[in-house]
Amino acid sequence: MDAERWQKIQDVFDRALAAHADERDVLIEAECGGDESLRDQVVSLIAASGKGDSQIRKVIAGTADDVGSADITGDDRIGAYRIERELGRGGMGTVYLAVRDDDEFNKKVAIKIVRSGFDSDELLHRFRSERQILANLDHPNIARLLDGGTTVDGAPYVVMEYVDGIPINDHCERNALSLNARLELFRKVCSAVNYAHQNLIVHRDIKPSNILVASDGTPKLLDFGIAKLLDPDTPGETAPVTRADMRLMTPEYASPEQVSGFPITTAADVYSLGVVLFELLTGHRPYHFDNRSPAEIERVIRDKQPTRPSDALTSDDNANRDTGPNSAIRDPRSLRGDLDNIILMALRKEPERRYSSVEQFSDDIRRHLVDLPVLARQDTLGYRADKFVRRHAGGVAAAAGVAVLIASLVGFYTWQLAAERNRALAETAKAEQVSQFLTDLFAASDPRESGGDKLTAQQILDSGAKRIRAELTGQPEVQAALMDVMGVAYQNLGLLDQAEDLIKSALEIREGLHGKSHTDTAESMNHLASVYVARTEFKKAGPIFREALAIERGFNDSSPEVADLLNNIAQVELNTGNFDEAERLYLEALALNRKLFGSDHREIATNLSNLGSVMGRQGHNERALDYFRQGMEMRRRVLGNDHPDLAYSANNIAAMLHVQGKFDEAEPYYRESREIRRKALGEDHHMYCNTSSNLALLLIDKGVLEEAETILTSVLETYGRTLPFDHESNALARLNMALLLIKKGEPKLAESFARDALGIQMKKLPAGSWRIAVSQSVLGESLAGQKQFEAAEKLLTESYKQIEKSLKPDDKRRGEALTRVIDLYSSWNKPDKAAHYRAMTHVLEQNTALH
What we know:
By secondary structure, the protein is of the alpha+beta class. Among the domains are: about 5-60, no CATH class; about 75-160, Phosphorylase Kinase, domain 1 (2-Layer Sandwich); about 170-375, Orthogonal Bundle (Transferase(Phosphotransferase), domain 1), CATH 1.10.510.10; about 380-435, no CATH class; about 455-555, Serine Threonine Protein Phosphatase 5, Tetratricopeptide repeat, CATH 1.25.40. The protein contains 36 helices and 11 strands. It has a 6-stranded antiparallel sheet, with helices on one face. The protein has a 3-stranded antiparallel sheet with strand order 7-9-10. The protein has a two-stranded antiparallel ribbon with strand order 8-11. β3 (about 95-100) and β4 form a beta hairpin. The radius of gyration is 32 Å and the shape is elongated.
């Protein structure tokens, strides 16, 4: 076999393997053009691909005696899942329909397995990336990751939500959807892609077969297997395109930069969405390929201008048409103008000339649907006047003459239309500048740009903050937007001083540009107040939240921003002891979110959990547990079993059971919360450490001291690396370590940890907080253990008075504080005082029973 012949076999094999199983035979026949030998060799390679590299080599050598087509049959199992049938094969591997049947669940899923023989380190790395990428995505139009692992043969796999649907183009044709219905459906897909982009993920293989529509009309975006995270560890590829890369994309939907091997950004997905929309509205694709060789694919996509969509409907050339017997008949006139220009803007060769974001692309479609001017259309007065007439067709029809009406309106609306145009152009420029700045910022973290050093998240943010202040002084809108975004990023890292500084600067700029009564100003106010909440400076946060709420209500009294601010204000009221007001605000936020999102939604689950916190702080433990459980069940329905939000619910339920002394009931919830956070966030994340610290305290209460010490030692080491010393989470972990050391008979060492915790809390919490009193009580116990009775007495008795006023009778911390006072007087040999407090124990037990 000469090199030219092998190249031909390889090209046809690659294309056939990437095709859907139902289309593969037709494609092979067409590609081989009557060459039976070529066809047989390709078919043998396809069959052998499931057997691994050794079998493929036998086919090439002509020595294969068995070319069975599948590694896995309908009777095989993968973990807890039974394989039912193959769903399809692609460049990376094979997807199977399976069902979990381990007596816990019986649910159909899709399992994707890396194809043996093609499991290079690069592809395995891509596949593992898919698991992490999908685990971080939570959107109603993105198929969820449910599970993952490795087969007995060592091949990695992921278990995904099974979408029982058909490709979006087939759905549109079979249901004869109208033009507007197709556009609305497409906008839902845009929402999913935009959500992924906001999470720094580029899909890179958007095509109809990766967008399935379920029977209820819900589109689901599939297959992030070749996505790239825009972070320091995954810089954009710059190597020339290879045949392996071709197998990891679909050429008909690939952008010019993809086929040319240039760095990939979110603009590549904008382009692919443009191709999909072209096909949905015309039944054609923008380009036709003669032989589909890599050279031709690159040349056509890089250099050839796409057909205008309306022209595609009138062309006699049907060679590039993706048709079926039920293809809808379309009217070219419906595409001329806006839709032609919208699609062609998405398909521009230069990434920087396309829509700056998928959100902007989708919004231009929305503007077309409501007869507003679109960004993709030249901004002429006649065009805008025509849009006005379309929006007000009834009034125009009643007028004596359309021309007279338009003429009379021109003068009045000219200034308004110009202002609207300028605002739209300014927003476009702002979005492009923000996108470019962030792209440059992440590119700077490329080891090739940073001298081989791997930059930390803080170093990247520090570099960006300096550049924002130095380079964007002449662009205040962009400067303020980036300061605000990066301030929130600093807060998420626990770097509150840097967060406050940037967000304050953003707020000052926005107030100067827009005044106080503007949504951008309210956004920065919300973020600044959230920093104060993170510092437990609730008195500073409350008024700012309320001012932001008044601003947002002035624009729209029923917006998600209003609901968010109601929740934030309620959090302040909760932490300052105003429980009735907190409950009222949480209920108002719940009602608004139900109005906005329906019965089941992530935000509603959060509202329910917040209400549980209010009930718990008031001692209404059963009501609290009911709210927490409602929230947890909703989160399981909406988000699945592994979403980080579920960890909040599990932790809350555990904490409520814990303070009631129901240790065995609480432990499984703590462990579930901890495991979810470990998988989703990693062991260095402060939320994982928080749950670990809570679990350790439970183990101390149960007397399981060795495991508790191991956990707390790890938590404190992590906090030492990742959080400021005076962070409240560090205080709680140190207090738990003090309790552990007291139990172990090491009161002197316990004193040091208790003093650290108390010092942090006295700095962070308001005077009179029961949390401060609990730390004082633990410090008092450590002093009593060292026979420093007088100092211990003052701490233990005064802290008990505060705890008695603040906590309900059935809260275990109240009983523990009282027990410490009794133990002090018993050790100090003061039986009268010990008896006095023992009598209080009996009263407490009676009140607990009544409560």
